[in-house]
Design goal:
Elements lengths: L2 H16 L1 E3 L2 E2 L7 H8 L8 H34 L27
Antiparallel strand pairs: 1-2
Helix pairs in contact: 1-3
Length: 110
Protein backbone atom coordinates (compact mmCIF):
# COMPACT_ATOMS: atom_id res chain seq x y z
CA UNK A 1 0.00 0.00 0.00
CA UNK A 2 1.56 3.30 -1.01
CA UNK A 3 1.81 6.31 1.29
CA UNK A 4 -1.04 8.31 -0.26
CA UNK A 5 -3.52 5.44 0.02
CA UNK A 6 -2.39 4.78 3.57
CA UNK A 7 -2.94 8.44 4.52
CA UNK A 8 -6.35 8.38 2.86
CA UNK A 9 -7.23 5.22 4.80
CA UNK A 10 -6.05 6.79 8.06
CA UNK A 11 -8.32 9.76 7.36
CA UNK A 12 -11.25 7.45 6.63
CA UNK A 13 -10.72 5.61 9.92
CA UNK A 14 -10.47 8.89 11.83
CA UNK A 15 -13.66 10.22 10.24
CA UNK A 16 -15.54 6.97 10.89
CA UNK A 17 -14.42 6.80 14.53
CA UNK A 18 -15.59 10.38 15.13
CA UNK A 19 -18.93 10.02 13.31
CA UNK A 20 -21.88 10.05 15.68
CA UNK A 21 -24.52 7.35 15.36
CA UNK A 22 -26.73 9.33 17.70
CA UNK A 23 -26.07 12.53 19.63
CA UNK A 24 -23.19 11.91 22.00
CA UNK A 25 -22.58 8.31 20.83
CA UNK A 26 -19.65 7.91 18.42
CA UNK A 27 -18.77 4.83 16.36
CA UNK A 28 -15.68 4.54 18.57
CA UNK A 29 -17.88 3.38 21.45
CA UNK A 30 -19.19 0.39 19.43
CA UNK A 31 -15.79 -1.29 18.90
CA UNK A 32 -15.78 -4.37 21.13
CA UNK A 33 -12.31 -5.64 20.18
CA UNK A 34 -9.83 -4.61 22.87
CA UNK A 35 -6.77 -5.55 20.75
CA UNK A 36 -8.06 -3.33 17.92
CA UNK A 37 -8.57 -0.44 20.33
CA UNK A 38 -5.05 -0.94 21.71
CA UNK A 39 -3.60 -0.95 18.19
CA UNK A 40 -5.57 2.17 17.26
CA UNK A 41 -4.19 3.94 20.35
CA UNK A 42 -0.58 2.90 19.64
CA UNK A 43 -0.74 3.20 15.83
CA UNK A 44 2.24 4.66 13.95
CA UNK A 45 3.81 4.21 10.51
CA UNK A 46 6.65 1.99 11.70
CA UNK A 47 5.04 -0.81 13.73
CA UNK A 48 3.10 -3.92 12.83
CA UNK A 49 -0.61 -3.09 13.16
CA UNK A 50 -2.50 -5.81 11.31
CA UNK A 51 -5.90 -5.04 12.84
CA UNK A 52 -5.63 -1.35 11.96
CA UNK A 53 -4.61 -2.25 8.40
CA UNK A 54 -7.60 -4.59 8.13
CA UNK A 55 -9.91 -1.82 9.38
CA UNK A 56 -8.31 0.54 6.87
CA UNK A 57 -9.04 -1.90 4.03
CA UNK A 58 -12.66 -2.15 5.20
CA UNK A 59 -12.98 1.65 5.18
CA UNK A 60 -11.49 1.88 1.67
CA UNK A 61 -13.77 -0.92 0.44
CA UNK A 62 -16.75 0.82 2.03
CA UNK A 63 -15.85 4.02 0.17
CA UNK A 64 -15.55 2.13 -3.12
CA UNK A 65 -18.94 0.48 -2.59
CA UNK A 66 -20.46 3.88 -1.94
CA UNK A 67 -19.08 5.19 -5.23
CA UNK A 68 -20.47 2.19 -7.15
CA UNK A 69 -23.94 2.62 -5.63
CA UNK A 70 -23.97 6.34 -6.41
CA UNK A 71 -22.94 5.76 -10.04
CA UNK A 72 -25.60 3.07 -10.47
CA UNK A 73 -28.25 5.36 -8.96
CA UNK A 74 -27.25 8.20 -11.29
CA UNK A 75 -27.44 5.83 -14.25
CA UNK A 76 -30.90 4.53 -13.30
CA UNK A 77 -32.13 8.07 -12.61
CA UNK A 78 -30.91 9.19 -16.01
CA UNK A 79 -32.72 6.32 -17.73
CA UNK A 80 -35.84 6.70 -15.61
CA UNK A 81 -36.16 10.44 -16.05
CA UNK A 82 -35.69 10.24 -19.78
CA UNK A 83 -37.96 7.33 -20.66
CA UNK A 84 -40.58 6.94 -17.89
CA UNK A 85 -42.98 9.57 -19.10
CA UNK A 86 -44.31 10.16 -22.59
CA UNK A 87 -41.99 12.20 -24.74
CA UNK A 88 -44.79 13.86 -26.70
CA UNK A 89 -48.21 14.65 -25.34
CA UNK A 90 -51.15 16.44 -26.85
CA UNK A 91 -50.32 19.42 -24.66
CA UNK A 92 -47.09 19.88 -26.61
CA UNK A 93 -48.89 20.27 -29.93
CA UNK A 94 -50.73 23.36 -30.99
CA UNK A 95 -53.09 23.10 -33.90
CA UNK A 96 -52.79 26.46 -35.57
CA UNK A 97 -54.78 26.69 -38.78
CA UNK A 98 -53.58 30.21 -39.48
CA UNK A 99 -50.26 28.93 -40.85
CA UNK A 100 -49.05 31.10 -43.69
CA UNK A 101 -46.72 30.07 -46.45
CA UNK A 102 -43.15 31.33 -46.10
CA UNK A 103 -41.73 32.96 -49.21
CA UNK A 104 -38.12 32.02 -48.47
CA UNK A 105 -36.29 29.37 -50.49
CA UNK A 106 -36.67 25.95 -48.91
CA UNK A 107 -34.15 23.20 -49.60
CA UNK A 108 -35.38 19.62 -49.31
CA UNK A 109 -33.63 16.31 -49.81
CA UNK A 110 -35.49 13.68 -51.81
Amino acid sequence: MNKQIKQWGEGLIKDWLNDEKSPGHKNLHDILSEPLLEELIGYNDIGNFDRVMALMQVMIYREQLYNVVVKEKKKTNRERLLFDGPLFTYGNWSYDDSFSQVDDDVYTFN
